[in-house]
Amino acid sequence: MVNSIKGIFVSCDVPMAQFIAHLNNSSPSSQRFIIQILKLDTICMFVKPQAEQIIRSEVSKFRDQLSFAKPA
Predict the structure, then answer these.
(1) How far apart are CA 34 and CA 50, in angstroms?
(2) 56 domain-assigned
(3) How many domains does the chain have?
(4) What angle do CA 11, 17, 20 make, to 5 degrees?
(5) Which pLDDT does position 2 carry in this prediction?
(6) Which of 12-16, 17-21, 39-43, 59-63 has the lowest mean pLDDT?
(7) If you ran DSSP here, which 8-state letter would residue 14 be given?
(8) Long-range contacts: 55-62, Cβ < 8 Å, 24+?
(9) Buried b (16+ CB within 10 A) or exposed e, 19-50
(10) Domain of 16: which CATH number?
C-alpha cells in the first residue's frame, strides 16, 4: 500500500533552512510542520500545506529585522 502526504516543497539556502527548522522545533509537537528535509544542491524541505503562510510571515519578519538603512 502506498501512503501519500499533501505538502509544499520549499527550497532555500542553508541559513534560511536553519531559521525554518528553528521555527519548527520551537513549535509545540502537535504544530510542527516539517515532513522531510532533503539536502541537494540547496536545502529542500517538504512541509505541511497549512504552514505556508506562517513560514512566509515569519521569514518576512526575519528579513525586516536584518534590513539596514544607509546612514545619512
Answers:
(1) 11
(2) yes
(3) 1
(4) 110
(5) 87
(6) 39-43
(7) H
(8) 55/10, 55/20, 55/23, 58/19, 58/23, 59/16, 59/19, 59/20, 62/19
(9) bbeebbeeeeeeeebbeeeeeeeebebebbee
(10) 3.30.70
CB-based contacts of 36, cutoff 8 Å, min separation 6: 45, 46
Q: Supply the DSSP string of 21-72, one letter for each residue.
A: HHHHHHS-GGG--EEEEEESSSEEEEE-GGGHHHHHHHHHHHHHHT--PPP-
> What is the tens place of the pLDDT at every residue in 17-55?
999 999 999 999 999 999 998 887 778 999 999 999 999
User: Which cell numbers in the block locate residue 12?
Assistant: 532555500
